[in-house]
Specification:
Helix content: 55-70%
Structural class: mainly alpha
Order of helices and strands: HHH
Number of strands: 0
Number of helices: 3
Low-confidence stretches: none
Mean pLDDT: 85
Oligomer: single chain
Distance between the termini: 37 Å
Largest sheet: none
C-alpha cells in the first residue's frame, strides 16, 4: 500500500464533520469511538477519491 501524503490526510481531517473533530475530545468513550470512526471514514473516502490533477495547459471552459 502506498503511503498517503501527510498534508492530504491533514486536509481530510480538517474537512471532516465538525462534530467528529470535536467528539474525539469528549469524556464519553462511546462518543469518542463514534467520532473516531467518522474521522477514519472521512480519511478513507478522501483517499479513495484523490483530487483531480490540474493541468495548466488545458483551457478552462465556463459552464
Amino acid at each position: 500500500m502506498q503511503t498517503p501524503d501527510p498534508s492530504y490526510v491533514a486536509h481530510s481531517i480538517l474537512t471532516a464533520p465538525a462534530w467528529a473533530r470535536l467528539g474525539i475530545t469528549m469524556a464519553d468513550p462511546r462518543m469518542r469511538e463514534r467520532a473516531a470512526e467518522e474521522l477514519a471514514l472521512a480519511i478513507v473516502e478522501r483517499l479513495d477519491q484523490p483530487p483531480a490533477i490540474y493541468d495548466a495547459s488545458q483551457i478552462p471552459l465556463p459552464l
